[in-house]
Design a protein that fits this description.
Strand content: 5-15%
Distance between the termini: 14 Å
Mean pLDDT: 93
Structural class: alpha+beta
CATH superfamily: Class II aldolase/adducin N-terminal domain
CATH architecture: 3-Layer(aba) Sandwich
Strand order of the largest sheet: 3-2-1-4-7-6-5
Radius of gyration: 18 Å
Low-confidence stretches: 1-8
Helix content: 40-55%
């Protein structure tokens, strides 16, 4: 286990808690094998209008990200891209656009996770409600069927405009984008959506007809999950942080 002793402890620096949450999300995404080598990117807005956000430096493996390494970007200051530890250029274009145009996108998680990317590769990338996890996303996703290459400036703007008020974008021929109000809620959505995609893809693989819920029950289930009386996302993420505190405490550095 890495001790990370050379990295500074940031307790008294701005955005420390936000940095730790985001670093935790990176570590767990790697643990769950939802990373893409040293590609993909997560970001978190830290001011009211979303113009300032934390993001991972280019080329850092998710399993090694520490709180101190996250870069504070300003949408209005592109000179950040001149730094030696600058974010990936596609991250700047994609995440900057999301934070600029989508108020609900305080946290933005972009991955090429296995099952979500399989779904994004199908001619029909919709997610029918066949269990509780798939029903949770009933009418709450958008499918991008206009992939236009790597997400430099114009592609990032296009994706942000397409997302609208949704929290999940199935990026056709590409991967997955999940947004939300906090790292905990957004990571929980990412986790459950990948689980939902796994159930759906495995069900497709049987070749047998799907048992699809009615529109009425699917909407009822999605609404009940959204208004669940216990903060399951917060509890889930609290547990994830505590596991890392025991096993990989250097993520906090």
């Amino acid at each position: 286990m890495s001790t990370g002793s050379a990295a500074p402890v940031l307790h008294n620096q701005p955005h420390y808690d936000e940095r730790v949450d985001l670093a935790c999300a990176f570590r767990w995404t790697a643990r769950l094998d939802m990373h893409e080598g040293v590609a993909n990117h997560f970001s978190l807005a830290v001011n009211d209008d979303g113009s300032q956000f934390l993001i991972n430096p280019c080329g850092r493996h998710f399993s090694r990200v520490k709180a101190s390494e996250l870069i504070l970007c300003d949408i209005n200051d592109p000179s950040i891209m001149d730094r030696p530890d600058a974010p990936d250029p596609t991250a700047w274009g994609l995440h900057g656009s999301m934070h600029k145009h989508c108020p609900q996108a305080r946290c933005v998680l972009h991955v090429h996770s296995k099952y979500a990317t399989v779904l994004a590769s199908l001619e029909d990338s919709s997610i029918p409600p066949i269990d509780q996890n798939t029903a949770a996303f009933y009418n709450r996703t958008v499918v991008d069927d206009g992939y236009g290459g790597l997400a430099f400036g114009d592609e990032g703007e296009r994706c942000a405009n397409l997302l609208g008020d949704k929290k999940v974008m199935i990026m056709g021929n590409h991967g997955l984008m999940v947004v939300g109000p906090s790292v905990a809620k957004t990571f929980d959505t990412l986790y459950l959506f990948e689980r939902a995609c796994q159930t759906l893809i495995l069900a497709y693989m049987t070749g047998k007809p799907l048992r699809v819920l009615s529109d009425e029950i699917a909407e009822k289930t999605a609404s009940e999950i959204e208004n669940y009386p216990t903060d399951m996302a917060g509890q889930h993420f609290k547990e994830l942080r505590e596991i890392l505190d025991d096993e990989e405490p250097d993520y906090r550095r």
